[in-house]
Amino acid sequence: MDGEPRVPEQRRPGASAEGGKDxxxxxxxxxxxxSARPAVQADATAGVPPLRFSVLGPVRARRxxxxxxxxxxxxxxxxxxxxxxxxxxxTAAELIDALWGEESPSQALAAVRTYASRLRKILDPGxxxxxSGGYAIRGLGEDALDLAAAQELATEAExxxxxxxxxxxxxxxxxxxxxxNGEVLAGVPGPYAEAQRVRLEEWRLQLLExxxxxxxxxxxxxxxxxxxxxxxAEHPLRERFRELLMLALYRSGRQAxxxxxxxxxxxxxxxxxxxxxxxxxxxxxxxxLQADPGLAEPSSPQPEPAAAPVRPAQLPAxxxxxxxxxxxxxxxxxxxxxxxxxxxxxVSALAGIGGVGxxxxxxxxxxxxxxxxxxxxxxxxxxxxxxxAADPETVLGAFLRALGTADSAMPDSLEERAALYRSVLxxxxxxxxxxxxxxxxxxxxxxxxxxxxxxLVTSRVRMVDLAGxxxxxxxxxxxxxxxxxxxxxxxxxxxxxEREAALDVVAACGFLPLAIRIAASRLAxxxxxxxxxxxxxxxxxxxxxxxxxxxxxxVKATFELGxxxxxxxxxxxxxxxxxxxxxxxxxxxxxxxxxxxxxxxxDLLESLxxxxxxxxxxxxxxxxHDLVRLYARACAERDEWPPSEREAALxxxxxxxxxxxxxxxxxxxxxxxxxxxxEEIHYPGLTFADRHTAQDWLYAExxxxxxxxxxxxxxxxxRRAVDLLWVAKDLAESGANAKQYExxxxxxxxxxxxxxxxRTRARALTTLxxxxxxxxxxEQADAEARLAMELARAAGxxxxxxxxxxxxxxxxxxxxxxxxxxxxxxxxxxxxxLDRNLAGEASALCNLSRIHLAMGQSTSxxxxxxxxxxxxxxxxHTLRGANGRYALGLALTGQRRLEAxxxxxxxxxxxxxxSRQRLWEGMTLxxxxxxxxxxxxxxxxxxxxxxALAVLRGIGGEWRxxxxxxxxxxxxxxxxxxxxxxxxWQEALTIFEQLGSPEAADVRLLLAPSATV
Length: 1013
Prior knowledge:
The chain has 1013 residues and is an alpha/beta fold.
């Protein structure tokens, strides 16, 4: 029959029948009893939930949430055939051929009629109609058929991709692919269903290829490798998947594996089909061999070139070295164009910190737009940042004179001058640049009132109360723009010779255009200076603002203008908030610094945002520009009285962070008594209703918290800072914050050593032990843990004694020192029991389980892990309960109880993902891969190990990566991909040899020519 679905295009179900016949026509056929017309469907089905059908899986019909019985396999085959006709009529002969092919039974026609009659009874009236000697399904609602929905989504994705919106295209295409639910037309017999299964599966694979292609265009290389590895195992002869896998591996830095994929593909195609890889695959191999730069990253569209400069009138001269800001130039030009075309009187208001380049940008844009305003361009500096702002009445007088109004005709009052100004502008096309405005009230009388005119406004204050204005917040330059501006002023030759030093200079300037211009001008006028000399001068934060002045330009003077206009409460907030290190600060943390209620704090901070001295980084978060922070600290040292208030503000913030992080630790680890061993605090923190909210706070606050911890590595703050880092230990295992956590841990360790405080040293070493463990640096971890135990005992501090012994036990496991590890863990168990720390005891029991498993004692390994899980579950300890299930999964794998092992590990994986524990997520994926490999399921093993490699990027250390690569190689070898397997083992061997790990010997055996997996 000819009713195959036209993929990807499909006519809407309910479209008119072939030949132009009306859906209700029954010419030449007797309508069966009980059949109904679509015209009466609305009345007959009023209030009834709509019907929905699925064919991208088992054939099903639903009414609302109710699953309808679609009868026998042949009856479902009839329903599927009609649904896939997309509203067109299928004759009885076509249906018989679809259901039975050439071997139809003698009563086939009667059977078709019976199936149709039964389907009518379960479907809505008017859905299944009889006409022209056949049947059709009509009148279905929007997206009633999953295939139609998939085709619509695929079309939408294609349109989005063609317009360059890859993010939306990927999201829509993923939704389309999610509509598949197993095998298409599952369990449906007949040749027609089989043909459609093949066709729709091919379409699914094409959509999948398209989505994966966009994944790579968006830079998701590592994530795509796992999926592509599984797909190449499932579809070994599909070359496009192989091509995408090669590209993903190459962009992930795995060139040897990428080339091995090509070698495996060429061998497979030759063995199976007797052909060579297609030209595209061969070309990609050559480009990889040549390290073609075009493969490194997907290309991005270039911005449209800015329009050529145009002639000004009253406008100040534009700077000859105007640099960057292309997006803002385009945005503002488009707004001005709307005014020039007479659609509206356009107003754009630029706001930003002093020195960010508002005037430079506005003048540049105004020059470009002047041809669109042939009747003139007006300019005035309103001096709004100073103590004596320009009077609107005076400005209007100057504007009216410039527009040809005689002094004798000049009104006296502000209102009369504003009215005359608007009248003079009526019918003209004039651009008005109002620079350095104080507030909206100052500029309202100066705005043109007619179409065809436009106004550009610059101010340090956001003009939120200027009705109809297009608001633009101007930020600092990008690093590339900043370096380009610096180079234009200093000269290409001097900068090219010291590019790194030049980058240091523009970074020290905070990418602020005024600061860059001052620094570059100083260097340009001093031929004996090198760029490195200037960089060294700016490296001293306490002297930086003093260095950034040249002639009548000075960054500090620019900031002083804004600071001098603040109210006393605003000025205090500005000074104190600048004291804390960190990229930004939350509203609650700022309230602690200021010792004010959150509501009052928010009012103060928002008022500082309005003055552009503070930035709103995100809802509820605020940040300073780097140079503004330095200025705020200088103001605090100069103006904050008494000076002890500075130390008190930092102490309150540290108390707030410690109290809140301790609350996160307690809700994540119920029953863990570490929070009872922390330093005393005097300022409260936040409380949380559930662990997800607690986790959200910790990860949102991570960068600010870790920067502040490092700042507190001194004096009276040191002990609390160490405790804060300890209770925030989840950040060490998260991946995104691991490096910053390590930097803070090293700083605190060094500060504790300098202070010669055994208690603080022991705790700092305990945090550093965890850092080394996560990174796979086991020798360093053991040395730190050993010293931590000695110091803790000397100080009589039980908490680090317990945890250091526990850490030493797991380190010994990794290093193969099983008897020593068993002794350490038994000591840890006793110490935890002495401290009545049930959660710690459970942790040590689970670690001891792993030691026993390594010693061949699998029965006791299972029992110990189960004991730990019982304790965790009794405490309601979800996260560490997952660690217990992880240990139990390993023990069950050791007993070859593989299904149970996979179940426990899967339970653990869900919790680790939910808790954002990347290290544990990656390692659990690896352990699942080991279990599947033990069960001789290499395809699943390969997919899981690829997922583990993607998750463990940047965390876990090379030793763990080497283990994952070894298992991946075993899986690939079993899948018939020996070239790629060898590449994995070779990389693993390199890792183990560099680390001096005993695993190197096992990998050498795998690489031996006679090795069998």
